[in-house]
């Protein structure tokens, strides 16, 4: 039972009760996105690895948030025009919302052919990495897709502690393919409401794509979009390491995604 | 247990190793508190934003001096408040807090009733105006205690005063506020 408010307050106790009541209603100016600005500033001060090759890493993003916002807007404009490339992956932006998927596409996810981990390792033209994070354990499903050259391996987990299932029962997806492919082959399209934050995984530049909806598809040799059914399961961390482009999708936060990413062996 | 969100100490450890993303996550946990604290110290939202950002960047550079196992909250608030004080001094003016009280129902959605222990809108506005009429030191310690919900130790860190003096300073400030509200004494 709350204490009655006495107005005006007659002693320190009543003053405290009144201030506590006022505090429940006080409205502060909205908190700006300070963490993002701090992260941008720190990365600007300490470029590492091929982070220096990212389109925005050479820009002077100063302490002023306004300047950072301007830089992001310019980056977005440049991305609309040219896309951002990481290895064989190009990221482009599109207005509006994604077109509807064919029925059943979300369920099938078009990961490719389901194979065992050993078979995926045999077929892939690269060393397949698996998270060593204890919470993840072995993937529940392993898929191999022959596109692009060297193939793509997708590791799929159901829910795990700290990695809840999405509407399709998928907790996490890790996808790997060789970076040395034509950047035009794979394309990730971001729609309105999606944000891209620069991050890093073990000293390698990374992108955290969060919010909104994004699709992922590849093009054939003539540049035609072949398949847009690779709808991502959720927010995605993308980076390149050791000649591979790696994606961790569906983790509930950048920290959770980075924990998986750092544990890949 | 791996897979769960990292706690503050783990994020600091990762940040010490150069993981900016881990530090960004730590900042995200404290950005609202830091911004509001800086706002109450310097009285200007733009300066508070810049001070909070500057403070967090400085703290990153000082992570190696952070004592393992200590609470990061007062440490971060002290650094941010220092930046906010510097900005206030540089501005050389006394800013009036633009705090206001919400006009709508409380966040729990309960309908107000005559019996409810609530402060009427007029009285809230009167109390906020009285707080704003206080001297800088009084206003700051009252708003840090009640609006930012800081502990005595955190208030001492933010105000850069000995912890043992916070309680008596707050008590005197409350007395002066009560005098202003009662329409009586001067509020020096």
Task: Put the structure in a nutshell.
Chain A has about 260 residues and is of the alpha+beta class. In chain A, about 25% of the residues lie in helices and about 25% in strands.
Secondary-structure map:
The complex is a heterodimer of chains A (265) and B (188).
Chain A: H1 12-23, E1 26-27, H2 34-45, H3 65-82, E2 84-86, E3 89-93, H4 105-108, E4 113-115, H5 117-123, E5 141-145, E6 152-157, E7 172-178, E8 186-190, E9 195-201, E10 204-210, E11 214-219, E12 225-227, E13 236-241, E14 244-249, H6 254-262
Chain B: H1 8-16, H2 20-42, H3 45-61, H4 72-91, E1 100-101, H5 121-133, H6 136-146, H7 152-159, H8 166-181
Biggest interface: A-B, 62 and 61 residues
What is the total tally of β strands of chain B? Answer: 1
Order of helices and strands of chain B: HHHHEHHHH
Number of helices of chain B: 8
**Nearest-angstrom radius of gyration of chain B?**
19 Å
Helicity range of the residues of chain A? Answer: 10-25%
Kindly describe this structure.
The complex is a heterodimer of chains A (265) and B (188). Chain A is α+β, with helices and mostly antiparallel strands. Chain A folds into 2 domains: 50 residues, no CATH class; 174 residues, no CATH class. About 28% of the residues of chain A have low confidence. Chain B is mainly alpha-helical and 188 residues long. Chain B folds into 2 domains: 92 residues, RNA polymerase sigma factor, region 2, helix turn helix motif (Rna Polymerase Sigma Factor, Chain: A, Orthogonal Bundle); 70 residues, Orthogonal Bundle (Arc Repressor Mutant, subunit A). Chain B has 8 helices and 1 strand. In chain B, helix 2 crosses helix 3, helix 4 runs parallel beside helix 7 and helix 6 crosses helix 8. The radius of gyration of chain B is 19 Å and the shape is elongated. Chain B starts with 7 loop residues before the first helix and ends in a 7-residue tail after the last helix. Chains A and B meet through helix 1, strand 1, helix 2 and helix 6 of A and helix 2, helix 3, strand 1, helix 5 and helix 8 of B. Strand 1 of chain A pairs antiparallel with strand 1 of chain B, so a sheet runs across the interface.
